[in-house]
Amino acid sequence: MNVQTPPDKLTAKDFASDQEVRWCPGCGDYAILKSMHKALADMGASPEKTVFVSGIGCSSRFPYYMATYGFHTIHGRAPAVATGVKLAQPDLDVWVVTGDGDALSIGGNHLFHALRRNVDLNILLFNNEIYGLTKGQYSPTSRIGLKSPSTPMGSLDSPAQPCVFALGCNARFIARGIDVQAKELGELFSRARAHKGASFVELIQNCIVYNDGVFDGFTAKDVAAEMQLHVKHGQPMIYGKERNKGLRLNVQALQIEAVVIGENGITEKDLLVHDEKNRVLAGMLSALRSPLFPEVLGVIYCDPATSYDSAVAAQDALARAKGPGDLDKLMRAGNTWSVT
Fold first, then answer.
1. For residue range 63-74, what is the model confidence (pLDDT) as tens digits?
2. pLDDT (0 to 100) of residue 4
3. CATH class of 12-227+289-312
């Protein structure tokens, strides 16, 4: 008899597969993987009730390294496959692992529909602002001026902003984290899993080979405290090594501005207080860009609504309650249209 270990007794090792992890040495994906192993154990997740679905790209090797169910699917189509999994087996925890190129280029349409439908999926978008697997071409999130094999004179494209995109798709949960911040990632993964509906988490991930250091402006140790704002619901937006900086709303200009507490009579009471249910505030925070502003991290927006899969299940139950149908009668019910 095969006796399963109770979820509350599992450890991070129980979620790690026996496959050799094969990413470039120093890749941020290693840190994300380790954080996920530990987070699932801490959450009391069950391997037999967990599924990871990925598309194509470096990040999409993720299912191989999880001792859960998994699908390595088609470029950009992971949200569609994951939607099918969730509708067929609503009791499963379904995670989608994708990259900025996989999700926002060929997969933009599929990501859009998964978010707008509010399917109960946990979508993790690894953003390294480059195509890594195909050797360093620019991606939808690459910055203007980036020189790559496909943009030798510098990219001319205006970059997509993942969290802004997700909000525009009417996503009900939006968060952002950094690959090497294990504690914070664990909290984000836990919040995403607890949210009923589509959870979208942008993971800032360093590609050490093709785009190394692109995020140093807010991730490097010597600037991190000054350039990162970890938002918490109900708490003022304070950051800085001395905890003397913050964000406030310029009411006249209807825009957020970075300020220093103590200068020009500014006090903590002048700062914005994070309200993760405020969609307008979420839009403003998602769009802030360094170096003028700190990188906003944590749960930016969370306002639950009925998930698509639960609505489908309810509709199906209603149809079944009417009794069995008669396919032959339906087929012979008469013309559904006519030409006159």
1. 999 999 999 999
2. 67
3. alpha beta
Q: Is the dihedral of CA 83, 109, 130, 183 positive or negative?
A: negative
Residue 144 CB coordination number (10 Å): 12
Taking residue 309's Cβ as centre, other Cβ atoms within 10 Å add up to: 22
Strand pairing of 69-72 and 122-127?
unpaired
CA distance 25 to 293: 31
Q: Where are the beta strands (DSSP E) in 18-143?
A: 50-54, 69-72, 93-99, 122-127
pTM of the prediction? 0.94
- The domain spans of the chain are 12-227+289-312
Residue 24 makes CB contacts below 8 A (sequence gap 6+) with 208, 209
Q: What is the pLDDT of residues 203-224, one digit of tens each?
A: 999 999 999 999 999 999 999 9
Q: How far apart are CA 30 and CA 179, in angstroms?
A: 8
pLDDT of residue 271: 98
42 near 186, Cβ under 8 Å?
A: yes
Count CB atoms within 10 A of the CB of residue 11. 12
Tokens of 217: 């402006």
Residue corresponding to tokens 């249209």: 337
Which of 90, 49, 91, 57 lies closest to 74 in space, CA to CA?
A: 57
Tokens representing 123 are 């979508």
Cis previous bond, 25, omega within 30: no
